[in-house]
Design brief:
Helices cover 20% and strands 32% of the residues. It is built from 5 helices and 14 strands. The strands form 3 sheets. Strands 2-1-3-4-14-13-12-9 form an 8-stranded mixed β-sheet. A 4-stranded mixed β-sheet has the order 6-5-7-11, covered by helices on one side. Strands 8-10 form a two-stranded antiparallel sheet. β1, α1 and β2 form a beta-alpha-beta unit.
């Protein structure tokens, strides 16, 4: 299995993501600066926390310049997926700009809890190799207070008072709003699909 660079962006889920990749036979390598991406065959950008400090760290360590030019598959997880978009309402910060759209705070006015925490159903919108073997309405585990819009790049959505992007894909860039490392078989399948993914 190929080497997978896992970007250390200060997220608390870093270790659990690495362990989930190891269980699938991958070799995750912690990368603390952009130089560590040189030999990577795939890159994972995990994240738990807030957009502004995460982007500040990515800029400080040179990732913000290098990630947009990566020729290899890139997967953002949770906050890492949100950082793929143009900007975030959280801290009113510019993000990596790899996907069009602005991340916004979930609307809790319907009496729903925000952050959105727990298991929720995935709603596939179009075919994607990242979703191979994942059934319609399969449950994944979410923890987030902000969400990306459902755009043409969204291959699966979720609903928590409002619809939002749960899985996105454009070219060699992809993201999961849920935590695959905490989503049992569904999460393992998405990660396995990513490890085999060869976007053209």
């Amino acid at each position: 299995m190929s080497r997978v660079a896992v970007v250390d962006a200060g997220g608390a889920n870093f270790g659990s993501v690495c362990y989930a990749l190891e269980r699938l036979g991958a070799t995750p390598v912690m990368v603390r600066d952009a130089d560590g991406l040189r030999d990577a065959r795939r890159v994972v950008l995990p994240g738990v926390g807030a957009a502004a400090p995460a982007m500040a760290l990515l800029c400080e360590r040179g990732f913000a310049e290098v990630l947009p030019a990566l020729p290899v598959p890139l997967l953002g997880i949770c906050l890492g997926m949100q950082l793929l978009f143009e900007s975030s309402e959280e801290g009113d910060v510019d993000c990596l700009g790899l996907l069009p759209g602005r991340v916004r705070k979930l609307d809790g006015r319907a009496g729903l809890r925000v952050p959105h925490m727990g298991w929720n159903a995935l709603q596939p919108l179009r075919d994607s190799p990242l979703l191979a073997g994942i059934d319609t309405q399969a449950q994944a585990y979410f923890v987030h207070g902000y969400a990306a819009p459902v755009t043409a790049d969204c291959v699966a959505s979720c609903t928590h008072g409002e619809r939002f992007a749960a899985v996105v894909q454009r070219g060699n860039r992809a993201g999961a709003q849920f935590h695959p490392e905490r989503s049992a078989d569904v999460g393992a399948r998405l990660l396995a699909n990513f490890l085999q993914w060869n976007p053209t």
